[in-house]
Amino acid sequence: MRRAITITVLSTLAGLAQADNTNTFNCSNFLTFNGNQAQARDLLGTSKETLSWNWFNCLNQLAPNGLDRVWETMKPSDQVYLADGAKPTPYGTPFTPPEDVTKQAAKIAGMNLKRAFHNLNATQQVDGLTLEMGGAVPASQRGKPVRFQLLMSESTFDYIVDQGVYNMNGQDALTSDLNFPSTSWEVKAGWLWIGEDATYQAQLEKDGYYIAQAYYQNKDGTYEVGYAALTALHVINKLVTGWVWTTFENVNNHLYTVTNDIPSQPMTNSTGPTPAAVPVNTQFQGWYGNLSRYELIGTQLETSPKLLANSQLESAFQTQSSCFACHGTAAYSKNDGYFNFAQGGDAGQGGIVYPTEPVPASEFKGYNKLDYVWSLKRAQWQRP
């Protein structure tokens, strides 16, 4: 019963409106910029950090179902890029986890089968490496990977379906560049796996982590079901042509995640919080108690700042991490496949150099640009 109360309290806190502060930002239709993109761009120019925090707060309000946070109701990529390349179900279609997951969940204290279950199906970062849990995590979790998932908004999903690029067949048939609607969003989340360890869960709750219901599939086909703690949320949208890139982390991540050095060291972020983010973090953390242990690392517009990384999502290559530059290489060629943005060189991670400036247009001859959306690389072929 104790855990059930804890999860309910967390959900209630997530839905608290702007109490005890003077913030008048309207969250009602923020995913469409409240129908006024020009005003949103003005706010972006005034303080991109303030607007980023307002978006983060809106994403973490209670969704209309009264159970989940708004971003949790977005469409996960595993429900878009299906393993058989089939057309995905419409946005908002109720999703039931695998039967083995629901059976296990029914036996776990506090689990609510009406709430979202996050399929934490990814562990590899962009460079192919994993981020390990360590430090203050229980012995049973040390050395195991932080897990990830990617979700998208309705505008993003609808465009992918309308263009038929949810599978490789559609991408292979492209004859021109993609151009997503300006109301497109994606979020990428990082998670510490808790399982059913109530003591560990209580420790993470004390350190300000959001706790959610989750599962993942083992290599042998069986499922792990339990709780997970949100370490990071990377948020992007297309309010401007080059997209807006903003990223948040829990301030206590260094206690639970470690570098791949020998011996390992606490994982920290070398790119932020940026100087402009620091006072905005202080203001919003004071306003929103349920988000007070999360901080904005920074917001990137084109190459300003030049580097921006999330220590949970781009751990080992923070010194070469540019959201805008790397995603700007999202492109597909019928003859050569996806564009390879990892270039050889002595200065890079393991002899690999990642772009921190836009790659010249001449490099994309024969490619169709994917409008910064690298999640399309998760698509599969649909076979007859």
TrEMBL record:
Where in the sequence is the signal peptide annotated?
A: 1-19
Q: Does the keyword Signal apply?
A: yes
Annotated keywords: Signal
Domain of life, source organism: Bacteria
Under which name does UniProt file this protein?
Cytochrome c family protein
What is the protein's species of origin?
A: Pseudomonas sichuanensis
Highest classification ranks of the organism: Bacteria, Pseudomonadati, Pseudomonadota, Gammaproteobacteria, Pseudomonadales
